[in-house]
Amino acid sequence: MQLRGEGNGHNSVRLTLRPKRVIPGVEVLMAGPHPPALRDRVVQAWLRGEGTYLELAERFVVGPASVSRWLRALRERGNVAPKPMGGAHRERLIGTDGDAFVKAVFEAVPDSTLDEVAEAYEENFGVAVYPQRISESARRAGMSRKRGSSAR
Length: 152
Known about the structure:
It contains 6 helices and 4 strands, in the order E-E-E-E-H-H-H-H-H-H. Helix 1 runs antiparallel to helix 2 (53-60).
């Protein structure tokens, strides 16, 4: 998607999209942060007294709330660089060894419940995990779990 930058049409700002979450076969995209150069131009225009938040927002094709946030960031942090994007940035409870273990258990005993595999995981690795973590591990390994028993 191409957005026009400053009103003269010579400068343009490219809206970049980054993957939000990848589900097998489906990729959901979300917008990334505005480029630092654009943020700097907006803030410099404000400091030179070239308009109100709303006027600058229209001129640079951004929202007035963005202008407000960037100026607040300049006051509070001393720069307008984007903060890190959100999302879980924690270490997985079930690593690659655990993923292999979960896959091996489901292949050996296909009718195992998530609770049973979670118990086996705790016995083997000494770490208690919720059944949902076992389900996520199986999904990462490319396995799909059907509901119910294959003995039906």
